[in-house]
Amino acid sequence: MTELDNLHVDLTVRLGTTSMPLHQLLKLGRGAIVELDGSDAEIVDILVNGHPIARGNVVVTGRAISVRVTEMVRKEAVIRKAGTRIGGAAAPPLPAPAQAAAAAAA
């Protein structure tokens, strides 16, 4: 077992997103229903440290709510943003597309 095996990451399950005017947000209270964007309410996104890694279905068994992974996100589909924190340290910024093309041509 390596040190990486003991590394903790934040896992988030995102049901959906929405945007609304501030005045509507200020009116929210107990019992309010917020409609979420998304084509399929049963499919959720699974994120690690804010980055999508998988998709799945919500499973409710008694009082437990779980997610069954149905699809892994391909590594090529996850684009690292400049300054993203990985393991507590800032990742080096990615070169701008023009810089990357110039470096590849050199």
Automatic annotation (TrEMBL):
* GO molecular function terms noted in the UniProt entry: cytoskeletal motor activity
Q: Which GO terms describe its biological process?
A: bacterial-type flagellum-dependent cell motility; chemotaxis
Cellular component per GO? bacterial-type flagellum basal body; plasma membrane
Keywords for this protein: Cell membrane, Chemotaxis, Flagellar rotation, Membrane
Q: In which compartments does the protein localize? A: Cell membrane
- InterPro entries membership: FliN-like_C, FliN/MopA/SpaO, FliN_T3SS_HrcQb, SpoA-like_sf
Q: Which family does it belong to?
A: Belongs to the FliN/MopA/SpaO family.
The protein here is known as Flagellar motor switch protein FliN
Protein's organism: Enterovirga aerilata
